[in-house]
Design a protein that fits this description.
The protein is an alpha/beta fold. It is built from 14 helices and 15 strands. The protein binds ligand LCS.
Length: 401
């Protein structure tokens, strides 16, 4: 049994989670002060976990360390492909050819590159909102226009507005759809019927599609992730992104899998991409895919319980907060519109008044006012403390109103 209750000291590790919140959340520098010392914050913001990477992964890195030479490295051997494709076969009953797998030092860099390779300068990038903001940043970075299709929100549950989506997809200048499957921040796991409908529209309008499946391993009990590649197996304009980074808390090792079927795009990638990988990262990822399954099962149980606890806490203490247990991810997406005005800067409010670092509102592009996103991948004691502080701050705020 792994001990997910352990509180691990992350100080002095150059962790963005600890050292980088001022710039990332508040676009501020070290001069920004709070009524809390940095070490007093409960950190529920960026999407990495407070849990240790599994021992089997650390052992994999150690084995590679023992080989003592760390020269230029790329995934050449079959072993990595076999480990990752077996993982996909076992979990998603989905496979892909070895020739279609390329590596990237993260999915974000891949998104930035792919937008540039795929879209002409006057073409647009479509995505569903609220959205992980880097989908927009990827378009912005290459000076491509972005087009948002708002998800519909009914009874606390999100769904795709297919009519709006098709209208936007049918614009001949919209050539790329970046799809978050499962969806950050709403936590939706897309169902087969939804993926079928989307695929139909994508094919009809001949869109390129990047299916970002970075969160796919982290689903609640009873949920089933379907790779878009399973829904549209013959579609060459599909690119699938998966990674061990969220699943095994390896984001800092910067390794991710990009599966490209179109030969021309793959050639462009192979010619223009800086094609080297970190040997320790390859070893970690391979060990994770080969041996990390058991740890992941235990993690899922712990996360399910953190979600259950959060649901119970909100129901008992903040009944007007609208919250549904996310179908995937370790991120809770909470509607606080009953307690706050749309214009309230919620990350700032909670940092100042609760000592809790979280993301929310316009950090998710649009269609996200009055929502906060809480990272629940932490020991239950930390979660309980964070929720208590959030509750207290909302209580004080509403007494003042
Ligand atoms: N794609 C999605 C949908 C993500 O949620 C994240 C990380 C990434 C890509 C990053 O991929 P990487 O470059 O690390 O391989 N999500 C984060 C988030 O929501 N907050 O902090 C990171």
């Amino acid at each position: 049994m792994y001990n997910f209750d352990e509180i691990i000291d992350r100080r002095d590790t150059n962790a963005l989670n600890i050292e980088g919140f001022r710039s990332y959340i508040f676009h501020a520098d070290e001069t920004m002060t709070f009524p809390y010392k940095d070490e007093e914050f409960i950190r529920m913001w960026i999407a990495d976990m407070e849990f240790a990477t599994p021992d089997v992964v650390i052992d994999g890195i150690k084995e590679r360390l023992n080989k003592r030479i760390f020269g230029y490295t790329r995934v050449f051997s079959n072993d990595y492909y076999e480990a990752f494709s077996d993982w996909c076969k076992k979990r998603y009953d989905w496979t892909f050819e070895k020739k279609d797998l390329v590596m990237s030092n993260g999915i974000i860099p891949a998104l930035y590159e792919l937008v540039d390779y795929i879209c002409e300068s006057d073409e647009k990038v479509l995505f569903l909102t609220p959205s992980y903001a880097y989908f927009k940043y990827a378009a912005d970075f290459s000076h491509r226009q972005s087009v948002c299709s708002d998800l519909m929100y009914e009874d606390g549950y999100y769904s795709i507005d297919f009519e709006d989506f098709e209208k936007k997809a049918s614009d001949p200048k919209t050539t790329l759809f970046i799809f978050c499957n499962p969806h950050n921040p709403t936590g939706r796991v897309w169902k087969e019927e939804e993926l079928d409908k989307l695929s139909e529209i994508i094919e009809k309008h001949k869109l390129w599609v990047i299916s970002d499946e970075i969160h796919c391993d982290l689903i609640r009990a009873g949920q089933k992730h379907i790779p878009l590649g399973k829904t549209m197996p013959e579609y060459k304009k599909l690119i699938t992104c998966m990674a061990p980074s969220k699943t095994f808390n390896l984001a800092g090792l910067m390794i991710s899998n990009i599966i490209i079927h179109d030969e021309k795009l793959k050639d462009i990638w192979l010619n223009r991409h800086y094609n080297f990988d970190n040997p320790l990262s390859i070893a970690a990822a391979q060990a994770a895919y080969e041996k990390g399954g058991e740890w992941l099962e235990e993690l899922q149980i712990y996360l399910d319980e953190n979600f259950r606890f959060t649901e119970e806490y909100f129901a008992a203490n903040l009944p007007k907060a609208r919250f549904r247990i996310s179908e995937a991810t370790y991120l809770a997406w909470v509607d606080l519109s009953a307690y706050f005005d749309k214009s309230e800067d919620l990350p700032l409010f909670f940092a100042y008044n609760a000592g809790v670092l979280l993301e929310g509102g316009n950090m998710f592009v649009q269609n996200s006012d009055s929502f906060i996103r809480l990272n629940l991948a932490c020991p239950k004691a930390t979660l309980a403390k964070g929720l208590k502080r959030i509750n207290k701050a909302i209580g004080q705020q509403n007494n003042v109103l």
